[in-house]
Amino acid sequence: MKKRMPVSSIMTKNVVTLNSTDDLTTAERLFKQKKIRHIPVVKDNKIIGMLSYTDLLRISFADAVDDDDNEVETMVYNMFTIEQVMAKKLVTVGASDTIKEVAEILASKEFHALPVVDNGKLVGIVTTTDLINYLLEQF
Fold first, then answer.
1. Where is the CBS domain (predicted)?
2. From CA 10, how far away is CA 5, in angstroms rounded?
3. Domain layout of the chain by residue ranges
4. How far apart (Å, rounded) are the C-alpha atoms in residues 80 and 114?
């Protein structure tokens, strides 16, 4: 196993993002279409939060909706904004931070994704799934 591998080698670079003005129906549609579980939220090109699919499940019955149904009509989504539901206290990492450093952060916190930010710009996202896939490649 390479000791000083940067997180940039395993992160997702083409990050799906939401704007703070998007609605939760749009968010759910992206989660399902892209088959992802975490979406950074941006405002004026700066990351201001992270929305997870679990955040949506906490406020709705989204998991009861057919996975193939892209036209979700959930009244609960109209009661909240993305900014009200997203995680606001973000921990970020840099693209040159090591995979080990990122793994230590994820192991000690209660979240499963970290935005990767360089010079104030979102350049990627790394998840626990990325780490597991990296470890599996080592065997």
1. 11-67, 86-139
2. 9
3. 7-137
4. 24
Q: What is the pLDDT of residue 74?
A: 58
* Displacement of CA 4 from its chain's centroid (Å): 24
Between CA 81 and CA 51 the distance in angstroms is 11
Residue among 33, 25, 28, 29 at smallest CA distance from 54: 28
Arithmetic mean of pLDDT, 78-97: 93
0.70 cut: is pTM over it? yes
* Residue 63's pLDDT band (cuts 50, 70, 90): very low
Match 């992160």 to its residue by tokens. 11
| Assigned CATH for 7-137 | 3.10.580.10
**Cβ atoms of 29 and 44 closer than 8 Å:** no
Per-residue HEC secondary structure of 37-104 comes to CEEEEEECCEEEEEEEHHHHHHHCCHHHCCCCCCCCCCHHHHHCCHHHHCECCCCCECCCCEHHHHHH
Residue with the two structure tokens 């996975």:
67
What is the C-alpha separation between 43 and 127, in angstroms, rounded?
22
Q: Tokens in use for 32?
A: 């399902």
